[in-house]
């Protein structure tokens, strides 16, 4: 977990038990972040040990984003256009209306 003193912008990492040491004063705001959990902020009212509880964050399914080249986009568009055919089926009517 990362602990950030918002006043000084100094940070510290916790050990596997969540224990950390950071330069801070009464009144400083500390931010706690950990992947997979919602961030927590707290204001120090004293310099004694304290306990915070973090809630698990929202988990999203993996999303894959792909981009086609302009050439591929144009080829797809032309392929879709040619599949529809034309209204006159390729015949040009030049007779007056």
Write up what this structure looks like.
- There is one protein chain.
- With 97 residues, the chain is α+β, with helices and mostly antiparallel strands.
- The protein has one helix spanning 70-84; strands at 2-5, 11-13, 29-33, 40-43.
- It has a 4-stranded antiparallel beta sheet with strand order 2-1-3-4, with no helix packed on it.
- Strand 1 and strand 2 (11-13) form a beta hairpin.
- The model has no long low-confidence stretch (mean pLDDT 85).
What attributes does this structure have?
15% helix, 1 helix, 4 strands, alpha+beta, single chain, 97 residues, four-stranded antiparallel sheet
Summarize the structure.
About 15% of the residues lie in helices and about 15% in strands. It is of the alpha+beta class.
Cα distance spanning the termini = 78 Å
* Proportion in helices: 10-25%
- Overall geometric form: rod-shaped
Number of strands: 4
Strand content: 15-25%
Order of helices and strands: EEEEH
Uncertain runs are none
Topology:
Elements: E1 2-5, E2 11-13, E3 29-33, E4 40-43, H1 70-84
Antiparallel strand pairs: 1-2, 1-3, 3-4
């Amino acid at each position: 977990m990362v602990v950030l003193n918002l006043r000084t912008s100094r940070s510290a990492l916790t050990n596997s038990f969540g224990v950390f040491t950071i330069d801070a004063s009464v009144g400083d705001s500390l931010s706690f972040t950990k992947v997979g959990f919602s961030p927590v902020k707290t204001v120090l009212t004293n310099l004694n040990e304290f306990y915070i509880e973090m809630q698990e964050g929202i988990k999203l399914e993996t999303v894959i984003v792909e981009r086609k080249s302009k050439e591929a986009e144009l080829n797809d568009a032309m392929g879709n256009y040619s599949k529809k055919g034309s209204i006159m089926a390729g015949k040009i009517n030049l007779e007056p209306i």
